[in-house]
Design a protein that fits this description.
It is built from seven helices and six strands. The chain is α+β, with helices and mostly antiparallel strands. A six-stranded antiparallel sheet has the order 1-2-6-5-4-3, with no helix packed on it. Strand 5 and strand 6 form a beta hairpin. Pfam families: T4SS_pilin.
Length: about 350
């Protein structure tokens, strides 16, 4: 009989331990919860579907499935049920032993069995009741995770909050996004490329330069331009950005068409690899226009595609980037490939 007492104690302990573990891990990390299988010998309450044994094969039907979302909660309930059943059996056995003997020691043994069984039953049911009182979710858990669709937001090139740019709905007076990620981390720290003015705060602001959302082709292109220029003759080539994605300061439109982002046709927009750089540095100018260099450095005309970037001045093709010398004010207007930068 001592073995029965040990069994019920173990069952009760397992029930409590199972409740504690499952309460702690009822929010799973796993993809396993969705991986089902057909058990050869299903446990009661741990499966879904028809689990009757097929008389032909001797195994459950294929639609009998089990996974963690069914198995663990079912095992939890099964352990509680087994503990309760063993407790009742031990109470009956203890009662029979108590009534069927006149021996004092026999009656004490029966009373001890009944007491242990009652305490085991109280332990199992009490633990369940306490957890259910604290929160029903601790005992009515589920391992099925609902998929949450990602928010429909537009991630701008270069990081930061997209604001009106994300919906392509900017008009005059709208707040303009911060460009410190591209300005500081990409251009300045990544290639020692400064920007001549502070970032714009609103659409329509003048006397500002923004590199918010500047295409990666332009970012990589100006950095590589500086490196290659300086590598030609061990000289210093200053590359300063003077125009970026502040579209309202560029283009030929006037009025509302100039400050409305989806109406302005300039290439100076977030996501594009078009940038203006200063033409005040002779080393850089000589590097761009030096036709004696080998490779694909060459003067391009409108008929050769130079005007697709700009028709406001002479253009030079370096790799797959077009450099156009514009005036009013004098500067380099550069169109880089969106994916491969300057093509160096």
């Amino acid at each position: 009989m001592t073995s029965f007492i040990k069994i019920i104690r173990i069952a009760a302990s397992v029930a409590v331990l199972a409740m504690a573990i499952l309460a702690l891990f009822s929010v799973p990390t796993l993809a396993f919860a969705q991986q089902s299988y057909t058990p050869l010998s299903p446990l009661p309450g741990t499966t879904a579907g028809n689990c009757a044994i097929n008389p032909t094969t001797g195994y459950p039907d294929p639609d009998c499935k089990s996974d963690l979302s069914n198995y663990l909660p079912g095992l939890f309930s099964l352990v509680i049920g087994v503990a309760g059943a063993l407790a009742v059996i031990m109470i009956v056995i203890g009662g029979i032993e108590y009534l069927s003997t006149d021996s004092m020691f026999g009656k004490e043994g029966g009373k001890e069995k009944i007491k242990n069984a009652v305490w085991g039953l109280i332990l199992a049911i009490g633990a369940y009741a306490i957890l259910n009182t604290i929160s029903p979710r601790l005992v009515n858990f589920s391992l099925i995770l609902s998929s949450i669709p990602p928010p429909a937001t537009t991630t701008p090139v270069g990081g930061g909050s997209a604001g009106c740019v994300g919906t392509n709905s900017c008009v005059a007076g709208d707040p303009w996004p911060d460009d410190s990620f591209v300005r500081l981390q990409k251009l300045l720290s990544g290639g020692n490329i400064p920007v001549n003015k502070n970032n714009c705060k609103t659409v329509g602001e003048t006397n500002c330069t923004s590199v918010y959302g500047l295409g990666y082709g332009a970012i990589d292109g100006v950095i590589q331009l500086k490196r290659n220029c300086e590598a030609q003759g061990n000289i210093t080539c200053s590359v300063v950005v003077t125009g970026g994605t502040e579209y309202w300061l560029h283009g030929s439109q006037t009025g509302a068409a100039k400050t409305t982002i989806n109406l302005n046709t300039t290439g100076h927009k977030p996501g594009n690899s078009v940038v203006d750089i200063s033409s005040s540095y002779s080393n850089l100018n000589d590097f761009i226009t030096d036709s004696s260099k080998s490779g694909s450095y060459k003067r391009v005309s409108c008929s050769q595609g130079g005007c697709t970037c700009s028709n406001k001045g002479p253009g030079w093709l370096i790799g797959n980037a077009v450099y156009v010398r514009e005036s009013s004010p004098d500067h380099w207007h550069v169109c880089f490939s969106s994916s491969t930068g300057g093509g160096f």
